[in-house]
TrEMBL record, chains A, B:
Keywords noted in UniProt: DNA-binding, Transcription, Transcription regulation
Gene3D superfamilies reported in the protein's UniProt record: Winged helix-like DNA-binding domain superfamily/Winged helix DNA-binding domain
Keyword Transmembrane helix applies: no
Name recorded for this polypeptide: Helix-turn-helix domain-containing protein
Keyword Transcription tagged: yes
Annotated organism of origin: Photobacterium rosenbergii
PROSITE patterns given in the database record: HTH_HXLR
Length: 126, 126
DNA sequence: CGGAATCCAACATGATACTG
DNA sequence: CAGTATCATGTTGGATTCCG
């Protein structure tokens, strides 16, 4: 008979080429999801976004928007008026990404009590 | 008429009580998803996990497993033999969480080329 | 208005050595 | 075997100031 040992399968690869890691690492940061959801309703200007994404600093909003733009999730349009106007909106890919993210949101909403309980139980044990 | 301005809706709330932020922040770290997926096939011992999750240090494996246990995603069982044996497996909630995560994995797989192209285009522009 | 540049504190992670 | 403790380093994000 052949071996019954589990094949030593490596988990979904851990390197920077891993597409999943790329996506999750990006949207897993402190602000990306909030910005994406802030853009679901439509186009927004920089300062409007800053208002809607509560607590974000100008620095992080700029930086995260640049990252999201580079990944292809967000479009940036500059209107060379004075003072300048800049609008952001989701790309088609961005709108598509939001779908699986909503699944996660839904899951998190449904399980928040379970998680709270699990934490409480864990903390009381130790 | 009433105002036609967009209602100034705050995005999904940005604080530590936000269930979504809790979930995404946890699984968005460097190792959590890899560990969860490594446990999908069934129970694994500590060092077996360490082998399967390529590149993880003992320190981060321990720490991330503790976090996942505290959230209620992972079960930890100690067999007080000598030397000690410790087994990890997904909880019911953990197995359930993996489902929406797979949606994200699938999405990421399907769009990896688009993302690569978007990055290339972005980098060439600037 | 929408940034960029700089500085700095906090945190995350890796390497290494030690242990019940 | 499955950790813990300690140290070193890199990364993140906030505050502030300046700019076209």
């Amino acid at each position: 008979m052949t071996t019954t040992a589990k094949p030593e399968r490596r988990v979904y690869y851990n390197n920077d080429d891993c597409p999943v890691r790329n996506v999750v690492a990006q949207i897993g940061d402190k602000w990306s999801m909030l910005i994406l959801f802030a853009l679901v309703d439509g186009t927004e200007r920089f300062n409007a976004l800053k208002s809607r994404v509560e607590g974000i600093s100008q620095r992080m909003l700029t930086q995260t928007l640049r990252d999201l733009e580079r990944e292809g999730y967000v479009n940036r349009t500059v209107y060379p008026e004075v003072p300048v106007k800049v609008e952001y909106c989701l790309t088609e890919m961005g709108r598509d990404l939001v779908k699986p993210l909503y699944q996660l949101v839904t899951w998190a909403d449904q399980h928040q009590d379970d998680i709270r309980q699990a934490r409480k139980a864990y903390d009381e044990r130790s």
